[in-house]
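Example with several molecule types.
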Amino acid sequence: DTAVSQTPKYLVTQMGNDKSIKCEQNLGHDTMYWYKQDSKKFLKIMFSYNNKELIINETVPNRFSPKSPDKAHLNLHINSLELGDSAVYFCASSTGTAAYGYTFGSGTRLTVV
Amino acid sequence: GQNIDQPTEMTATEGAIVQINCTYQTSGFNGLFWYQQHAGEAPTFLSYNVLDGLEEKGRFSSFLSRSKGYSYLLLKELQMKDSASYLCAVHASGGSYIPTFGRGTSLIVHP
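Resulting structure tokens for the full complex:
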């Protein structure tokens, strides 16, 4: 049983296109996140949702729009893709207790050409 | 803001012990995470330190000194499968409670 699953695993697309990445968790966690990991391996928070409500929106272009239809799902839609959006995007979830850490999905490698 | 510093790369020999250091500067502090990330895979949670001292979990131990803004991850009896990136992340107090990650230390274990 996959705890945090995201699809697709790989995404190659042209500049200017619109794409979505889906994420689902079956852990019963209340909080979900989107992280971006660039070529230098920094993991940067993009968004955080708690019980379907947006609680964190870091400095991310408004071309990126998260959607949480229920607390088990957090999807990421990206409009007008740019070359600089190429990265690995990780979905993650957590309970309210930091001591248990975050559970990450396997990542989506987005390549914009 | 927060500043987290860790070495970019380390190498070690199978069976040896390696210590990966992390220093941080933050305006407030709740705790510090260590994650392991194998190439092309998701980060996996290793430890979370809130209080000063050493916490041991099998071959891996994590140490924290809040007054020095310093932590280390100690890996004993190294195995080839320990070759991975090790990410330090600081959980600051106040604000969003979202941890800030360092760039990670790439550990290469060779025979």
